[in-house]
Design goal:
Jelly Rolls; 3 helices; alpha+beta
Length: 162
């Protein structure tokens, strides 16, 4: 690992549906130790609920207000400046119920989750005959369990979309 500056124009950006993941520090820059991602969540948008089997996630709400469900606990109205701890193997979901975009800094340890975002983006854009298999295979390859039942429940309760 070497000292360096990653300028805004050098950062990578991946869009999954309407959510944008931007990162300049990933597994390549940290020898796999961690990845740092800035996540922009549009108004009334849910990030698909899931479980990580490989990573712990730590978050800082940079702008806006979000809500989170971790395990069976739901915390609404988490303001800018709040920190979140989402340990591996604990199901979680994050969403923006506000009228303005929210931005969250995600630190993921160990790094590498940005590769999943890069690989899943074209799958989400190109629904085809084997879409469900490609979607499921990628989640499995990265140790993710997608919680569709939570998605349905949260969308109905909070009027949010994916």
């Amino acid at each position: 690992m070497e000292s360096r500056v990653i300028r805004p124009e050098e950062a990578h950006s991946v869009q999954l549906n309407e959510v944008v993941f931007r990162y300049g520090i990933g597994t390549a820059e940290t020898d796999g130790a961690l990845s740092m991602l800035e996540v922009t969540i549009p108004p009334k948008t849910l990030i698909k609920p899931h479980i990580h089997s490989h990573e712990d996630e730590f978050s800082l709400v940079l702008a806006g207000q979000i809500s989170v469900r971790t395990g069976e606990r739901t915390i609404e109205e988490i303001p800018t400046g709040s920190w979140l701890v989402k340990p591996r193997s604990v199901p979680h979901a994050m969403w923006n119920v506000g009228d303005e975009a929210a931005r969250v800094l995600e630190v993921v340890m160990p790094g590498g989750l940005e590769r999943y975002f890069e690989e899943i983006a074209p799958v989400l854009r190109n629904h085809g005959p084997d879409w469900t298999k490609r979607y499921s295979d990628l989640a499995e390859a990265y140790g993710l369990t997608i919680l569709d039942d939570w998605s349905d429940e949260l969308k109905a309760k909070y009027g949010i979309t994916l």
